[in-house]
Please model this.
Amino acid sequence: MKTIGKLAELAEVGVETIRFYERKGLIKQPKKTPAGGFRTYPDDDALKIKFIKRAQELGFTLAEVKELLSMNANPKATCKSVGVKASAKLEEVEAKIVDLTRMRNSLRVIKAACSENEEALACCRIIECFEGNC
Model:
Protein backbone atom coordinates (compact mmCIF):
# COMPACT_ATOMS: atom_id res chain seq x y z
CA MET A 1 0.00 0.00 0.00
CA LYS A 2 1.27 3.42 -0.97
CA THR A 3 0.48 7.02 -0.07
CA ILE A 4 -0.47 9.28 -2.96
CA GLY A 5 3.02 10.78 -3.07
CA LYS A 6 4.70 7.38 -3.28
CA LEU A 7 2.17 6.22 -5.86
CA ALA A 8 2.82 9.33 -7.97
CA GLU A 9 6.55 8.70 -7.78
CA LEU A 10 6.17 5.03 -8.73
CA ALA A 11 3.82 5.82 -11.61
CA GLU A 12 6.00 8.74 -12.76
CA VAL A 13 3.15 11.27 -12.64
CA GLY A 14 2.20 14.17 -10.42
CA VAL A 15 -0.16 13.91 -7.47
CA GLU A 16 -2.66 16.07 -9.39
CA THR A 17 -2.72 13.51 -12.19
CA ILE A 18 -3.77 10.85 -9.70
CA ARG A 19 -6.48 13.11 -8.31
CA PHE A 20 -7.66 13.86 -11.85
CA TYR A 21 -7.88 10.13 -12.62
CA GLU A 22 -9.86 9.64 -9.42
CA ARG A 23 -12.34 12.36 -10.45
CA LYS A 24 -12.69 10.73 -13.86
CA GLY A 25 -13.36 7.34 -12.28
CA LEU A 26 -10.25 5.70 -13.73
CA ILE A 27 -8.87 4.76 -10.33
CA LYS A 28 -10.67 4.53 -7.02
CA GLN A 29 -9.94 6.97 -4.25
CA PRO A 30 -9.26 4.84 -1.16
CA LYS A 31 -10.82 5.62 2.18
CA LYS A 32 -8.68 7.29 4.82
CA THR A 33 -7.04 4.97 7.33
CA PRO A 34 -8.36 5.27 10.86
CA ALA A 35 -4.84 5.43 12.29
CA GLY A 36 -3.48 8.55 10.64
CA GLY A 37 -6.14 9.70 8.25
CA PHE A 38 -3.99 8.95 5.21
CA ARG A 39 -5.25 7.36 2.05
CA THR A 40 -3.24 4.35 0.98
CA TYR A 41 -3.41 3.02 -2.55
CA PRO A 42 -3.01 -0.59 -3.67
CA ASP A 43 0.33 -1.42 -5.28
CA ASP A 44 -1.30 -2.30 -8.62
CA ASP A 45 -2.59 1.28 -9.02
CA ALA A 46 0.88 2.29 -10.23
CA LEU A 47 0.60 -0.20 -13.10
CA LYS A 48 -2.90 1.02 -13.85
CA ILE A 49 -1.74 4.65 -13.99
CA LYS A 50 1.17 3.76 -16.26
CA PHE A 51 -1.30 1.92 -18.51
CA ILE A 52 -3.57 4.98 -18.61
CA LYS A 53 -0.68 7.28 -19.53
CA ARG A 54 0.60 4.94 -22.24
CA ALA A 55 -2.87 4.42 -23.69
CA GLN A 56 -3.29 8.21 -23.87
CA GLU A 57 0.06 8.52 -25.64
CA LEU A 58 -1.18 5.98 -28.17
CA GLY A 59 -4.29 8.02 -28.87
CA PHE A 60 -6.91 6.47 -26.65
CA THR A 61 -9.33 8.90 -25.04
CA LEU A 62 -9.92 8.74 -21.31
CA ALA A 63 -13.41 7.36 -22.02
CA GLU A 64 -11.86 4.57 -24.10
CA VAL A 65 -9.28 3.88 -21.40
CA LYS A 66 -12.06 3.69 -18.82
CA GLU A 67 -13.86 1.12 -20.99
CA LEU A 68 -10.67 -0.94 -21.35
CA LEU A 69 -10.05 -0.85 -17.60
CA SER A 70 -13.66 -1.84 -16.99
CA MET A 71 -13.34 -4.77 -19.39
CA ASN A 72 -10.10 -5.81 -17.72
CA ALA A 73 -11.78 -5.83 -14.31
CA ASN A 74 -14.85 -7.69 -15.57
CA PRO A 75 -14.40 -11.46 -15.36
CA LYS A 76 -17.30 -11.89 -17.80
CA ALA A 77 -15.68 -9.73 -20.50
CA THR A 78 -14.69 -11.68 -23.58
CA CYS A 79 -11.70 -11.45 -25.85
CA LYS A 80 -14.15 -10.69 -28.65
CA SER A 81 -15.33 -7.51 -26.91
CA VAL A 82 -11.73 -6.36 -26.53
CA GLY A 83 -11.12 -7.32 -30.17
CA VAL A 84 -14.00 -5.12 -31.30
CA LYS A 85 -12.47 -2.16 -29.46
CA ALA A 86 -9.05 -2.97 -30.92
CA SER A 87 -10.47 -3.16 -34.45
CA ALA A 88 -12.17 0.22 -34.11
CA LYS A 89 -8.99 1.83 -32.80
CA LEU A 90 -6.95 0.14 -35.53
CA GLU A 91 -9.17 1.69 -38.21
CA GLU A 92 -8.73 5.09 -36.57
CA VAL A 93 -4.95 4.65 -36.38
CA GLU A 94 -4.71 3.57 -40.01
CA ALA A 95 -6.69 6.65 -41.09
CA LYS A 96 -4.31 8.83 -39.07
CA ILE A 97 -1.33 7.15 -40.72
CA VAL A 98 -2.73 8.04 -44.13
CA ASP A 99 -3.20 11.66 -43.00
CA LEU A 100 0.24 11.81 -41.40
CA THR A 101 1.85 10.38 -44.55
CA ARG A 102 0.10 13.03 -46.62
CA MET A 103 1.25 15.70 -44.19
CA ARG A 104 4.84 14.41 -44.23
CA ASN A 105 4.90 14.49 -48.02
CA SER A 106 3.46 18.00 -48.07
CA LEU A 107 6.04 19.20 -45.55
CA ARG A 108 8.83 17.72 -47.66
CA VAL A 109 7.54 19.60 -50.70
CA ILE A 110 7.21 22.83 -48.69
CA LYS A 111 10.71 22.38 -47.28
CA ALA A 112 12.19 21.80 -50.73
CA ALA A 113 10.29 24.68 -52.29
CA CYS A 114 10.81 27.21 -49.54
CA SER A 115 14.07 26.41 -47.79
CA GLU A 116 16.30 28.26 -50.24
CA ASN A 117 13.77 30.57 -51.81
CA GLU A 118 13.84 34.16 -50.61
CA GLU A 119 10.62 35.06 -52.43
CA ALA A 120 7.45 36.19 -50.68
CA LEU A 121 5.48 33.63 -48.69
CA ALA A 122 2.79 33.65 -51.39
CA CYS A 123 5.14 31.54 -53.52
CA CYS A 124 5.15 28.67 -51.03
CA ARG A 125 1.37 28.16 -50.84
CA ILE A 126 1.38 26.36 -47.49
CA ILE A 127 -2.39 25.85 -47.35
CA GLU A 128 -2.49 24.37 -50.81
CA CYS A 129 0.35 21.99 -50.00
CA PHE A 130 -1.53 20.49 -47.08
CA GLU A 131 -4.38 19.78 -49.47
CA GLY A 132 -1.96 17.96 -51.79
CA ASN A 133 -1.80 20.72 -54.38
CA CYS A 134 1.87 21.71 -54.25
